[in-house]
Fold these 2 entries.
Entry 1:
Amino acid sequence: MEPTVSFFSGFAPKDLLFLGEAALRTMWISVLSISIGTVLGVIFGWILYEGKWAAALTVAPILDVFRSVPLIIQLVLFYNFAPIVGLNLDPFASGVVILTIYTASLVANVARGGIEAVQPSMRRAARSLGMSYWQDLRHVVLPIGGRAVFPAWVGVALGVMKDSALVSVLGYVELLKASQILITRTQEPFLILTLAGAFYFALSYPISRYAASLERKWAQ
Amino acid sequence: MIEIHDLHKYFGSLHVLKGINLNVEKGEVLSVIGASGSGKSTLLYCINGLEPVQQGKVVVDGTDVHAKGTDINKLRQQLGMVFQQWNSFPHLTALENVALAPKIVKGKSKAEAREIAAQQLKHVGLGEKLDVYPSALSGGQQQRLAIARALAMEPEYMLFDEATSALDPELVGEVLETMRMLAEEGMTMICVTHEMGFARDVSDRVAFFHQGVMEEIGPPEQIFGTPQSEHTQKFLANVR
C-alpha cells in the first residue's frame, strides 16, 4: 500500500508561539501607527481649530476622505499604486503608512474637540499671566483638553489596533494572517479564531484598564 | 501709571467704548461701576491687551499696550488680572496653579516658584490648602487662588473684573476682604465691581460708565453723595 501524505496536522503547542509572535507584530504595527498618527492628528486638529476656512478648504476634505473610505480599500490601493510613483514599500511599511494616516484623520477631530473643550476664559486667564500662545497651548490647553477627550482617544486607539488586522490582506503576518495560516493547516477554525480573539483581548484589556485608572486619578 | 487716551473699542459694528480718557496713578484704587454692557469689563481687557482697540491708546508705565513692537507677554506680567470666573487650572494643585506662571513665564526654578506660590497662597489665607486640587475648594477659595496666582507674577497693577459676581453671597466677603487687604498694602487696583460698599469704602476714586462713556469720575463721597450725572443718579437709585 502506498504511504499516505497528510497535508493537515493538528494544533501543536508551538503554534501558540507562532500566534504569540504574530500578536507582537500586531502590537508593533499598532503602537507605531497610533503614536505617529496621534502626533499628526493633534497637529491636524490644531489646524482645524485655528485655520478656520483655510483649513476647511484644505486639510478637512483630505481627512474626510481617509475617514470615510474603508481601510481595506485604502490599504489595497496604496500597496498596489504606491510603486507607480516609485514608492516600493513592503507590506509592513505600507500598513504603517495607511494606519498612521487613518489614525491621524480620526484623532484630528478628537483633538479639535479637546481644544474646544477648554473654556476661552481659561485661556484668557493663562494669557493674562503673561503666558505666550504656545505656553498656553502646552501647559493649559493640552492637559485640560487632553483629559477631556482622552476616553475618545482610547476608543480610536483600540479601534485602530483591531483594524490593523486588515493589513493581513497585504500579506503581513500579524495576528489575523497567522490565524488564517494555522486554520488552513489544522482545519480547526473554531479553536484558532478563539485563540486569536483572546490575544486581541489580551492586547486591548490592559489598555482599557490603564485608561480607566488614569481617568479615576484625574477625576480626584 | 496707566494712561488711557481717547480709547475706542468696537465689537463688529457695536461701539463698546466711546472715547475713554483716564489716568490711574501708582497706589491708587479705582472702582468702575455701571450697568452690565456699559463697557467696564471691556476696558480692563483693553488695558492688558486681551482685546485689540480700534482708536486711541493705553500706555502702561510708558509702554503703549497695543503698539506693534510691544512685548505684550512681558507687559502682562505687570498687570495681574482676576476674572469673574476664577478659571483655576483643574489639573494642578493650588500650589502648582500659582507656581506655573512664575516657572514658565519668568523662568524661576521649580523650588523658587513653589516658594513664591506658597507665600502668596498664605498671603490670601490659603496656606492650609497648598496641595489641594481646585475641585475641592469653594468658589471664594478658588477666587482667592486666582488672586494669589496673579500676585505671584509680582505685578505693579491688579485688574479685577467683577471678581465677586459669580460667587454665592456668603462667599463674597472673603474675596472682598482679600481685595481690601491688597488695597491697604498699597497695590494699584482697578476694580470693575457691583459691590457698592466696597467701591465706597476702599476706592480713592470711583468711575461711572454708561453705554461706553465714562459719565462721571470722582472721589466716592462725590459719586455716592452728590452724583452730577443723571444716569449716575438713576443707576445708584436702582442698586440701593
Note: The mean pLDDT of chain B is 94.
Entry 2:
Amino acid sequence: MPPILEIRGLEARVDDKPILRGIDLTVNPGEVHAIMGPNGSGKSTLAQVLAGRETYAVTAGEVHYLGADLLTRAPEERAREGLFLAFQYPVEIAGVSNVYLLKAALNAARRHRGEPELDAMDFLALVRGKLKAMEMPEDLIYRSVNEGFSGGEKKRNEILQMALLEPKLAILDEADSGLDIDALQVVARGINALRAPGRAMIVVTHYQRLLDYVVPDFVHVLSQGRIVRSGGKELALELESRGYGWIDDAAPAAVRAQ
Amino acid sequence: MNTAVRERPSDRAGREALERALAAWPAIAPGLPGMHASGIAKLRENALARFRASGFPTARDEEWKYTDLSALTARSFMQVPGDVQAATAEPLPHHALFDDLGGHRLAFVDGRHAPELSSIGPLPGGVRIESLGAALLRDPAALETWLADSRGHSAMAALNAAFMADGALVIVPAAVELAEPIHLVFLGATASTVQPRNLIVVGEHSKCTLIEHYAGSAPTFTNALTQAFLARDADVEYCKLQDEGERALHVGGTHVAQAQGSRFAGHSVSLGASLARHDVTAIFDGERCTATLDGLYLAGGRQHVDHHTRIDHAQPHGTSREHFRGILDGRSRGVFNGRIVVHPGAQQSDAWLTSRNLLLSADAEADTKPQLEIYADDVKCAHGATVGQLDENELFYLRSRGFDAAAARSVLTWAFARSALDAIRLAPLRAHLERACLARLPQALPLAELA
Amino acid sequence: MDTDTTHIDELISREYAHGFVTDIEADSVPPGLSEDVIRLISAKKNEPPFMLEWRLDAYRHWLTMREPDWSSIGHPPIDYQDIVYYSAPKAKKDGPKSLDEVDPELLRVYEKLGVPLKEREALAGVAVDAVFDSVSVGTTFKSRLAELGIIFCAFSEAVQEHPELVRQYLGSVVPRGDNFFAALNSAVFTDGSFCYIPKGVRCPMELSTYFRINAKDSGQFERTLIIADEGAYVSYLEGCTAPMRDENQLHAAVVELVALERAHIKYSTVQNWYPGDRDGKGGIYNFVTKRGDCRGAHSHIAWTQVETGSAITWKYPSCILRGDNSVGTFHSVALTNHRQQADTGTKMIHIGRNTRSTIVSKGISAGRGSNAYRGLVKVLKTAEGARNYTQCDSLLVGDRCAAHTFPYIEVRNPTAKVEHEASTSRIGEEQLFYCRQRGLSAEDAVSMIVNGFCKEVFKELPMEFAVEAQKLLGVSLEGSVG
C-alpha cells in the first residue's frame, strides 16, 4: 500500500526565524506515529504546516499526501481530503453553535467526495452516537463553538469532530495537555476507537503519559526542527526516564521510520 | 443662507471674560517667570493665541457639553498675581498638610510657593523637588521642551500655559526609586485666581509616588495644569485630590506622556468645589505601556463635577484600565466622559473602562459617555457604564441583619466609594482619602469605625 | 500562497447585485429647490392647502438650518440645488387602478429585486407597497386589509382619502424643523407609505414597502407614517435598493411611528442601497430620521435594522417612551466595507414611569469601512423605575477599518437603572484557520462567524427577512479578511 504521508526535507520558518530545519517522515496506513520533543522543538509547527497554516512559510522540501502534493493546497481542501488536525488550543467562535460547525464540516467533506449531504435528522442521529462514545452531554453541541468550554470539554470536542469526520490522517496536537486522568482516558479511548487499517495518526505530545493509553508504532524525537531519534514505543519510556536533556547532545540524524 | 446665531448670555460672559484675560495680559506678562527667555516667552504667547482662537469653552463644544463655565466667566477673576486680598483671607486648612504622611512636601498658598509649609527631606542625587516659578527664573531653557508639549490640552490648559506663575517641578533622574511620597499641596486662602503648573519628569527605570492636593475654604478659581513625562520603564503612582471649599471653582488637567514599558497608575478623587472639571490624558508613545486611571467623585448640594479622560493607544501592546465611580446627592450633577483611542497599527492593545454612578437623591443627575475609537483590529477593548441606586437586595440583606435603613444605605454607599480607593498602593494616603470621603458622605458618622 | 488573501480579493471585487438601471419614462421637475418647486410638487399631488402650508413652513425653517457636522462621517459638500426633487414614472392618465395597470417594466424591476408583487400576494401573504423613486406604485392586499379597517396605502393617497388622520399625526413625532434633513424631507417629500391600524386590531400579515431609487440625479424623500391605535399590532418591513451610479444620490426619508395605549409596532428594515464602488465612488447618502412615539401606556415600539448598503448611513431610529410602562427596543446590524461609512444608533428617551428600553447594536467594519454607534439613553426626572440595557459590539475585519462607540447616558432619576456594555472583537486568523481545517471555505467561515455575531439581531426579524439579511451580509462582506 502506498504511504499516506511522505515528508522530505521540510523546512519552514515564521517571520525570519527557522523552525523546521529538514524533516523527513513517512507514515503508512494503519500506523500511529508519536512525535515528541521539548518545548520549542517544532512539534506544533509541523502539525500546523501539514494542515496549511499560512503563518509559517515553507522554504524547502516537499510533502506528499495520498500520493499528491500537499503544500499547494488550501487548508479546507486538505481537510476535505481527510487530513484532520486536533488543535492544541481549540478556537472559540461566539454565536456559532457547535452543531452548526459540525454539520457544515461534515457536509463540506461529503460534497467533496460526491456523496449526498446529510439532513438534520440523520446528522443528529449520527452525532448523538458519537457524543455517547465521548461521554459528552448533548447540550454541548448546542453551545457556541468551544466558548466557555472547560479545557477537557474542548479536547473532547476535538475528538468528537475527528470521530465524525473520519479522517485518513489525524494529527493530534497535544491532545492530552491540561486533562485530568479521567478525561485523558476518555480522550484516549476516543482515539483508539478510530485506529483502523486504512487510517494513520500522528500524535504530537510533550509527555509520554498519553502514550500509555494510545500505544504508538513509532516514536520520533524532534529537537531544534529536526528528527534526532526514531524508534519504537520504548523510546517514549526512555524519554520519560531521562528527560529531553540528552537528545540535544545526540548527533542530529534524519532517521526514517521503518 | 444662515441667519446669524443670536448670542446667549453665557456666550457673552465667556466673550467678555476672554476680553478681560487678553486685556490683562500686557500688564501681567512682564512679571511672569521665564519671560526673559525667548523660548518661554514664545511658548506663552503661542498658548495665548490658541486661547484667543478658541475662547472659553461653551456647551456647544462637544467636550464641554455638560459643563457650563458661566459661573466662572461671570466672575472678574483675571487679576494680577500677588494681588492678594489679605483682609478676606481664610484660615489655612492645616489638616491638609498630611503631617503623618512622611516624605516630601511642597506647599503653595494662593498659587505661590510657601517654603514655611514645605518640607523636603534628603533626596538621592539628581532628584529635584522645587518651585517651578523659581526654576523658570533660573534656567528656563532646560524646561522648554517639556512645557511646549501641548498634546491633549484644552483651551483652559492653553490659558494656564500663558499665565502660569508657579507650581511644582519634580525631576527624578534615571534608575532612582523614591521610597517616600511627594506631596504637592495647594492651599487657597483668599478669593484668588491661581493657575498652578506642575511638571513631573521621571527617568528610565525610576519610580515615585506623587500626590497633587487642593484644599482650602476660600472661593478660589484654580486652573491647574500638570504634565508628567515617564521615560522607559518608569513607574509612577499619582493621586489628585481636589478637596476645596464649596465656593471654589476648579479646572484641572493632568497629561501624561509615556515611553516604552512605563507604568502610570493615576487616581482622581474629587470631593469639593462648586464646579470641578478634570481632564486626564495618557499617551502611549512607546510599546508595552500600562496606564490605570481610577476615579471617585462625591457631590452633593449643587455641586457639579466633570471628569474627561482620554487614553491614546498610539503604539502596540499597550494596556489601559479605567474605573470611575461617582456618588451624587442633593441637586448635584456628575459627568464622566472616558475616551479610548486605538491608533492605526496599535495592535494588541488592551483597554477596559468602567463608569459607575450612584444616584442618592431625586434631583441628582449623572451623565456618562464611555467612548471607543478603534483603528486597529487585533485589540481587546471593552467598556461598561451603569447608573442606578443602591441594590435593593443588598439593602434588604443588611436590614435583615439588624441595620436600620439609613445605616444600611450608608454602609453600602461607603462600600461603593471605598472600592474606588482600593487600588491606591500607599496605605497612609489611602487612609487620608478614606477619611476625606467619609467627611463628605451623608450619615458618615456611624461609619467612622469602618474606615 | 496566501489563499485567504486571494479569496478575499475575489470576494471584495464582487459587484453590487441590484445595480441595474431601469429605463422608464420619468416625469421630473428640473433640479433645484425653491418655493415654486414645492408649490409644483404639491400641485402635482393635488394636495389640500394645509399640506402646502406645512411644506412651505418646513422649507422656510430649513433655510435657517445648517447641515449637521457632529457625526464621524465625511463627504464632499452636497449641492442641494443640483438635486431633482420630484421624479415619477410617467402616468398613464390617472395612474394604475390595479396591479394589471402598473407598467410591466416596473413590475420586472421588483421581480429582479426579489419582490414579485403578485407572487407575494399569492404565496407569502405580505402586503407590499412599492415606492419607485418617489411615487408609490401599487399596494397589494388592500381589500383584505380594508375589511379589518386597516388603512395601508401610498402617502399621497392618504392625503387625499384620509386628510384628517394625516393632519392629526403628520409631524407629531418628527416635527417639521426637527433637524436639517427632516426639514428638507418635510418640504419636498413626494410619497411614501401610510398605515393606520384601528383599535384592537392585530394586523394579520406583515406589511411591507420596497423602496428603489432609479432616476439619475434624483433624491428620494419618502415619508412613512404608521399609527397603531389602542391595542393594535403591526409588523412592518422595509427594504431598499438603488442602481449603481457614479454620482452620489441623496436619500432623506422620515419615518414616524405612533403607538397608542397597549399598541405594538415592529418596524424592520433591510437597507441595501448602492454603497458605491470599492474606491468610494458613487453610492447613496442615506440621511434618515426615524422616530417612534410610545404615546400610550404599555405601548411597545421595536426597531430592527440591517444596514449593509449606502455610501453613508446616518440614522438613529429612536423611541420616545412617554406612556407609563412603555417599551422601546432597538436591534441593529450595520456593516461597512470598502469605504462605506455608517454613523448609526438610537435614542431612548424615558419619560413615563417604569419605561424600559433595550439596545443591541452589532457593528461590522471591513476593508476601509468606518462604523460608529452613537446612542443616547436619557432618563428624565419623571421616569420613575426606568430601565435600560445596552449592548454594543463591534467586529473588525482587517486592520484598515475603524469602529467607534459613542454612547451618551443621561440620568435624572435615582430609581432608574441603566447599564451599558460594549466590546470589540475581530475575525481572527485562528478562527478562520480552524474552520478551514474543518473543511469550510474561507468565505463560508467568515459568513458563519458574522452571522453568529449578528444572531441576536436576526432573531428579531421576520423569518424571510432574516434569511435575506443573512444572504446580504454574505455578499457584502465575505472574504474581506486581509
Note: Chain A is about 30% helix and 30% strand.
